[in-house]
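Justification of computing resources. Each target in the renewal requires a structure prediction run like the one illustrated here; the chain below, 300 residues long, is used simply to show the kind of job we budget for.
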Amino acid sequence: MTPDRIPARAWADLIFLSLIWGASFLSVRVALDEIGVFTLVAHRVGWAMLILWAYVALRRLPVPRGWRIWAAFLVMGCLNNAIPFSLMAWGQLHIETGLTSIFNAATAVFAVPVAAACFADERMTRRRVAGVLVAFAGVAVAIGLDALRGLDIRSLAQLAVLAGTLSYAFAAAWARARLAHLTPQVAAAGMLTGSSLIMLPLAYLVEGTPALPRQPQTFAAIAYFAAIGTALAYLLYYRIVRATGSATTMLVTLMIPPVAIGLGALVLGERLAPTAYLGFALIALGLVILDGRLPRALRR
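Resulting structure tokens:
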């Protein structure tokens, strides 16, 4: 499907999803002022799990049986929720919300070499190599040369966020290998069940019994990133995938940072260094090269 043939409803869904996920970075940062990282992630995946299973029950979708598929859900929950959500939330304690969203855009870049290593039909063509190299250069620029020369808490936070995006890339490969036969809603609900089984005990052991927040803004933040930023966002995401394919859905990673940067500046007073914007531009260029449709259109 070429860019000019993307349905108008799909464009509307992409914009809506970018607004939802862009605001999720802000809601996470607000919640971190009162609750710990693991407790935050436990709230996020636990409540979203309940919402999605309620949706599955209302739609009367078949629930998978057998220990193998539930073991796959556990691995998927670890790779796609527990690890990246925790790393990115910790990273947001030390770096700006907008910068976190810029690094998040590298998820699709990491997915290319991971898929090439895992699947025979995902070869690294010259175009893909060029796109990955340009995007990786953007990541390096966004981090900054000073941060690359010495490790401090800020540079470690940036590396933690990037490790989260790498975990997303492995999750995509795992989903294709183990969960492709499931309906997206059931796969998402099962994944969140797996991550809840990990995060609830972990939050209890490290930070104590997860409790409801006392501050109203924290309660609102949890309600947002669990119900809207996770449960609703997954349903919307899979609808876009069905309508346009995964390549077009990748565009949302380029639409999120402007939302997150704007909200971070408006609400939190954040200001990013010029290198962060230059890095995002290079990441965006790399993703355009990887997508391939714009270069083909220009050649035609």
